[in-house]
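tool_call: predict_structure(chain=1)
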Amino acid sequence: MTKFVLVFGSNEAGIHGAGAAKEAYQKHGARWGFSYGHMGESFAIPTKDLDIQTLPIERVQQYVQGFLAYAKGHPKLNFKVTRIGCGLAGFSDEDIAPLFVGGQANIYYDGAWKDLLTDDSKFWGTF
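tool_result:
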């Protein structure tokens, strides 16, 4: 069975209290107070700031680019990307999914993004 690193939307305060962030904290090794990066079997990408206000899309894009570089540098890991920012942060799938275009073969996306990404993208289901 393939193990996956759960990629979830976070906030810059590292408070993982709801949605996929709570799941990552409770079951996938995300650490309270850590807002970005690989922890346990999770990878946090902030979509909200320290005051839990939604970040500008350009800032989210910078975090996503960092994640894509990390995934490229770790080809033996498989990443399961949730619909980061499309819940509590208030972004639409159309806002966020295109930020992941150019991802590599070890990244699997939420099935809700199937029509928004390239034909060679892989999908895992939905959260």
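agent: The first helix runs from residue 19 to 27. Proceeding to next step.
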